[in-house]
Amino acid sequence: MIFQITVLGLAAISVTVLIKQFVAFNCMLLNLIDLIITKNQMNKLFLGIFLFSATVANAQLKPVSYTDGTQKLNGLVTSNAGKKLPGVLILPAWKGIDEEAKTAALELQKQGYIAFIADIYGEGNIPKDNAAAAQIAGKYKKDYQAYQKRISLALAELKKAGASAEKLAVIGYCFGGAGALETARAGFPVLGVVSIHGSLGKAADRPNIALSTKILIENPADDQSVTPEDMGNLIKEMNEGKADWQIITYANSKHTFTDPKSADYNELMAKRAWKHTLLFLSEILK
Fold first, then answer.
1. What is the CATH number of the domain that holds 95?
2. pLDDT per residue as tens digits for the range 18-53
3. Are residues 82 and 165 in the same domain?
4. Which of 32, 58, 84 is the last residue of a domain?
5. Torsion of CA 243, 244, 250, 251, to 10 degrees
């Protein structure tokens, strides 16, 4: 009887040990599985970070230095420079190269264009406030030939970046919108220009001439900087120049309606305007 009890006791102990070993083994197995899963997750995380970093790096705008005589100019070009693609020159608003111009350049790259942002004012001449911006922008509006020269130099840099010389266009915001019209008036070899809430007037003593460039005007309905007289004179100029032109007016929109940082920003109309810009560029460049 004692022997049987002892055997049974030993058997019970063995079973207990086996159960503990089994539990321990399963715990180890579960830990190992967790480790493998965690490692895979970490690998995916690191891969994601790498791919994101690569995407951001590829999307960066590259600085380009060029000159107008002794004046140094600092433009920006998209990272697809060097490829034979249609090109779009961006003329920034009156404070110089800004976030809206940079965003436009990166969006244009996604659409298959090489984009170059022009530096009109030059190094050391970037205005710090609206008063300074009005003064220097006014200088180039008055001396439109100097403005046209800076645009011409920027177009040359766009072509150096690999853009097809036969497939070029210009878009401009605000002061840059005036520059887009000056591009057409200068007869530069571009297929089309887009003036986005641009200044539309020109000096009364300048004659109307032939305009071979296609012209798109994106005008906010409530832009107080554009008078009915300015609009009427521009339409007369484009008609007398036998231009292929279109004007789109955006309701409930003030001057800088496309700029997210502006109090005038109208998200709906800004998105529509950008779609209209892309449609126009696709028509003339692709």
1. 3.40.50.1820
2. 445 544 555 554 454 454 444 455 444 433 433 343
3. yes
4. 58
5. 80
